[in-house]
Design goal:
It is built from ten helices and 20 strands. By secondary structure, it is an alpha+beta fold. It binds adenosine-5'-diphosphate and magnesium ion.
């Protein structure tokens, strides 16, 4: 078992800065997810940890060892990719046993470990089959089994579930998380799927364009997004955001974004004033908007017109139009069903759920 420390990691491909001065500490036994859109540098970071790419600068430690100059096989890591390749001519048993055989472990020990791993992954009854006799989910489990059978210090996974169908993916998410906790292996898991990251990670490292945006627990990334990018990337649907100006009148503070105008909570006003900014972006999550057809008894509300509603079974997504802006609200279906397209609606929210960002730096203010 070991922690992983990434210090000032830089990796370029020609003129592309794939990883831009990344600093990350992954604790012993921790499950860390690297999350971000395609091309943000997740795979490159993982391959640097594995030793499959050579950093331009920076240091990588596994445990207390600087591994920059160690070849992949000496780093004591296991890696699982999206396209796992099982050896087609070998049985499941031999596929899992392979990493132990090349390390020349005694036969009895190999047998014990293969059976243990198979039991853990619930594939004991498949050990005599060949890969072509397996379903996608079974094959992926065998690949996972093969990667962990020799008990590596660090487990690296690059979108290992993205080839599976939606239902199996949900199932395997939970299975993998349980397995990681049971084995207590320090894990770095790459995905572009924010829901996967939220459900699996102890901590999430959100990346964009090679830069680390936020490194925090799923709860914090969701409730205290460090900047506009994180707020817009996490959550489904993502955070509603609108740019505007901070205005003071009669000792009160207001957000003025043209069609969107409302009084800001005092705590937000204080935070904005202490930063001395006037151009801001406000954000509110779709599930934090309270939608009503009655004018609320507060200055903290927005007005909108119902543009379209999208039923999701027990919930409903309402697209709410304010001039040329659309905000999405997620409400219970029995609430949403009462409203008609084109109807004027009032949106309120708990002041604590509001976010304010500096428009210039895009950093969270409140
Ligand atoms: N071997 C390579 N040669 C050239 N460019 C690469 C190579 N690998 C990755 N890149 C570029 O580096 C950036 C980061 O890629 P990658 O780490 O694969 O992103 P992610 O895994 O987040 O989708 C992208 O712009 C990608 O095109
Ligand atoms: Mg990738």
């Amino acid at each position: 078992m070991a922690k992983v420390l990434i210090k000032n990691l830089v990796k370029r491909f020609g003129s592309t800065l794939a990883v831009n001065n990344l600093n990350l500490e992954i604790k012993d036994k921790e499950f860390v997810v690297l999350l971000g859109p395609s091309g943000c540098g997740k795979t490159t970071t993982l391959r640097c940890i594995a030793g499959l790419e050579t950093p331009d600068s920076g240091e990588i430690y596994i445990g207390d060892t600087l591994v920059n100059d160690l070849p992949p096989k000496d780093r004591d890591i296991a890696m699982v990719f999206q396209s796992y390749a099982l050896y087609p001519h070998m049985t499941v048993y031999d596929n899992i046993a392979f990493p132990l055989k090349i390390r020349k472990l005694p036969k009895s020990e190999i047998d014990k470990k293969v059976k243990e791993v198979a039991k853990l992954l619930q594939i004991s009854e498949l050990l005599d089959r060949k890969p072509k006799q397996l379903s996608g989910g079974q094959a992926q489990r065998v690949a996972l089994g093969r990667s962990i059978v020799r008990e590596p210090k660090v487990w690296l996974m690059d979108e290992p579930l993205s080839n599976l169908d939606a239902k199996l993916r949900l199932y395997m998410r939970a299975e993998l998380k349980r397995l990681q906790k049971e084995l207590a292996i320090t894990t770095v898991y790459v995905t572009h799927d924010q829901a996967e990251a939220m459900t699996m990670g102890d901590r999430i490292a959100v990346m964009n364009k090679g830069l680390l945006q936020q490194y925090a627990s799923p709860d914090e990334v969701f409730n205290r997004p460090a900047n506009v990018f994180v707020a817009g990337f996490i959550g489904s649907p993502p955070t509603n955001m609108a740019p505007g100006t901070f205005v003071e009148k009669d000792g009160k503070g207001y957000f003025d974004g043209g069609a969107i105008k409302f009084r800001l909570p005092d705590a937000a006003v204080e935070a904005i004033k202490s930063k001395g900014v006037s151009e801001i972006i406000f954000g509110i999550r779709p599930r934090d908007l309270i939608v009503s057809d009655k004018k609320p008894d507060t200055e903290m509300y927005l007005t909108a017109e119902l543009y379209i509603s999208e039923p999701l079974g027990d919930e409903m997504v309402l697209d709410l139009k304010m001039d040329d802006q659309i905000f999405k609200a997620v409400v219970m279906s029995y609430v949403g069903e009462k409203f008609d397209i084109g109807q004027k609606l009032y949106l309120t929210f708990d002041p604590a759920k509001l976010h304010v960002f500096d428009k210039k730096t895009e950093e969270l203010i409140y």
